[in-house]
Write a structure and sequence with these properties.
about 280 residues; mainly alpha; MetI-like fold; 16 helices
C-alpha cells in the first residue's frame, strides 16, 4: 500500500511541475473554440460558450490561398529537411566514426566548432549565394543545406552512437568481402535506428516551427508555410480574426504531436544509448 501511495505522490508531483508548461497549450486549444471577443476579454480556461466558427472561418480569412496549401508546404519542407539530415548526417557520422583519413581530427574539431556559430552570422552570405543561384522564393534554401550535413549536432549524435558499435562487426564484414559502403548500409544503418529517429524527429519539429529562414527566403503566399500563414493574421487589424488565428495555431500543433508520439519510444532509446553522456 505504501508503495502505491509513493507512486501516486510522485505522479502528482510530476503533474504539478508539468502544469505550468502544459497550460499555454491547453489554453490555446480551448481558446480556439471561444468567440472572438471572449478571447481578448477573458483568460479563463473554460469558455463561456463553445463555437466552431473559428475553424469554419479559416477558409474565408485566407481566401487567396487554401489552408491545405500551407500544410502541404510545411510538410514538404519539414520532410525534405528531415530526409536530407538523415542521409547527410549519417554518412558524415560514419566517416568520422569508422573511417581513417588525413586531417580526420582537425576536420572533426572544425565540424564541432560550427555548433557555436550563430545562424545570424552566416545569414547574409547564404542569402547572397542562393540569390545568385536563383533559388530565392523556392524551397531549396530550406532543404539543400540539410543535404550537406550542416547540422553538426546531428553529425555528432551519429558519431557518438556509432562509436558504441563494436568494430569487430566491421572486421567480420570485411572478411566476407564487404566494402565501406556495404558495411554502412547492411550493418551500421540497422543498428543506429534510434539515432536516425531522433534526428528525424528533431529536424522535422525544428523545421516545422522555423519562422526566420522561411520568412527570408519565401515571398510568394502560394509557397508560405504555416508559421508564415500565421503571420498573415497578425498583419490584419480586425480583432475578429484572433479566433481563426488560434484555430490555425492549434491545427499546426497536431502533426508534430502525432509525429512525436509515434516515435517517442525510439527517441528515448536514442538518447539513452547514444553515448552523449560522455
Amino acid at each position: 500500500m505504501s508503495r502505491v501511495l509513493r507512486r501516486a505522490g510522485w505522479h502528482l508531483v510530476v503533474l504539478a511541475l508539468l502544469a505550468p508548461l502544459l497550460y499555454p497549450i491547453v489554453w490555446l486549444a480551448v481558446a480556439s473554440f471561444k468567440p472572438g471577443p471572449e478571447i481578448l476579454q477573458s483568460l479563463a480556461l473554460i469558455p463561456k460558450r463553445i463555437v466552431l466558427d473559428n475553424y469554419r472561418d479559416l477558409g474565408g480569412a485566407l481566401a487567396d490561398v487554401p489552408i491545405w496549401r500551407f500544410f502541404a508546404n510545411s510538410i514538404l519542407v519539414s520532410a525534405g529537411a528531415a530526409l536530407g539530415n538523415l542521409i547527410s548526417c549519417s554518412l558524415a557520422g560514419y566517416a568520422f566514426a569508422r573511417l581513417r583519413f588525413r586531417l580526420h581530427g582537425l576536420l572533426f574539431g572544425f565540424m564541432l566548432a560550427t555548433i557555436m556559430l550563430p545562424t545570424h552570422a552566416v545569414l547574409i552570405p547564404q542569402y547572397t549565394i542562393y540569390q545568385r543561384l536563383g533559388m530565392v522564393d523556392t524551397f531549396w534554401p530550406l532543404i539543400l543545406p540539410k543535404l550537406l550535413a550542416t547540422d553538426a549536432f546531428f553529425v555528432f549524435l551519429m558519431v557518438q552512437f556509432m562509436r558504441n558499435i563494436p568494430r569487430e562487426l566491421d572486421e567480420a564484414a570485411r572478411l566476407d568481402g564487404c566494402g565501406s559502403i556495404r558495411i554502412f548500409g547492411r550493418i551500421i544503418l540497422p543498428l543506429i535506428r534510434p539515432a536516425l529517429v531522433t534526428t528525424a524527429i528533431f529536424t522535422f519539429i525544428w523545421t516545422w516551427n522555423d519562422f526566420l529562414s522561411q520568412l527570408i527566403y519565401l515571398s510568394d503566399p502560394e509557397k508560405y508555410t504555416l508559421p508564415l500563414a500565421l503571420r498573415l493574421f497578425i498583419d490584419v487589424t480586425d480583432q475578429n480574426l484572433y479566433g481563426p488565428m488560434l484555430a490555425l495555431s492549434a491545427l499546426a500543433l497536431v502533426p508534430i504531436l502525432l509525429f512525436f508520439a509515434a516515435f517517442q519510444r525510439l527517441l528515448v532509446e536514442g538518447f539513452a544509448t547514444s553515448g552523449l553522456k560522455g
